[in-house]
Amino acid sequence: AVWTFSTAPEQWNPEINFSLILPYAEFPSPKRNEVVDSESVITLSWTAGRNAVTFDIYCSAENPPKYKGNQTETRLILNKLNAATRYYWQINCVTGTDTVRGEIWSFKTF
């Protein structure tokens, strides 16, 4: 579902506009604690935090998740996940002057 708010004469969409406000990554996909099919390709995606230039990505079956790398895109494709496993992931927004730690999210495979 997409939420929009009317601030006549324009609509305000938080998923688009929060990146101008929040300093950290938000709106994860898969959603918090979502259950996903381990046989399918899973795409992690998020809305960038304010002033983010790149993203430090952490993802593993361990909590806290292991560092996977840094990139500029707001999505990461995962392949070959284990079934019946909870995965943890975190996106840290790297700005020109700071790194803003994000929440640790999780999803489970079946």
What can you tell me about this protein's structure?
By secondary structure, the chain is mostly beta strands. Helix content is 4%, strand content 47%. It has one helix and eleven strands; from the N terminus they run ββαβββββββββ. It has one helix at residues 14-17; strands at 5-7, 10-12, 26-29, 34-36, 42-47, 54-60, 67-71, 75-78, 86-94, 99-100, 104-109. Strands 4, 6, 7, 9, 10 and 11 form a six-stranded mixed sheet that branches. The radius of gyration is 15 Å and the shape is globular. It starts with a strand and ends with a strand. The mean pLDDT is 91.
Record keyword descriptors for this entry.
single chain, 110 residues, mainly beta, 6-stranded mixed β-sheet, 3-stranded antiparallel β-sheet, 1 helix, 11 strands
Summarize the structure in short.
The chain has about 110 residues and is mainly beta. The protein has one helix spanning about 15; strands at about 5, 10, 25-30, 35, 40-45, 55-60, 65-70, 75-80, 85-95, 100, 105-110.
User: Compute the gyration radius: what is it?
Assistant: 15 Å
Compute the number of helices. Answer: 1
Structural class: mainly beta
Helix content: under 10%
Q: Spell out the helices and strands N to C.
A: EEHEEEEEEEEE
> How does the major sheet shape up?
6 strands, mixed
N-to-C terminal Cα separation, in Å? 24 Å
Q: In total, how many beta strands? A: 11
Gross morphology is globular
Layout of strands and helices, then pairs:
Blueprint: E1 5-7, E2 10-12, H1 14-17, E3 26-29, E4 34-36, E5 42-47, E6 54-60, E7 67-71, E8 75-78, E9 86-94, E10 99-100, E11 104-109
Parallel strand pairs: 4-11
Antiparallel strand pairs: 1-2, 3-5, 5-8, 6-7, 6-9, 9-10, 9-11
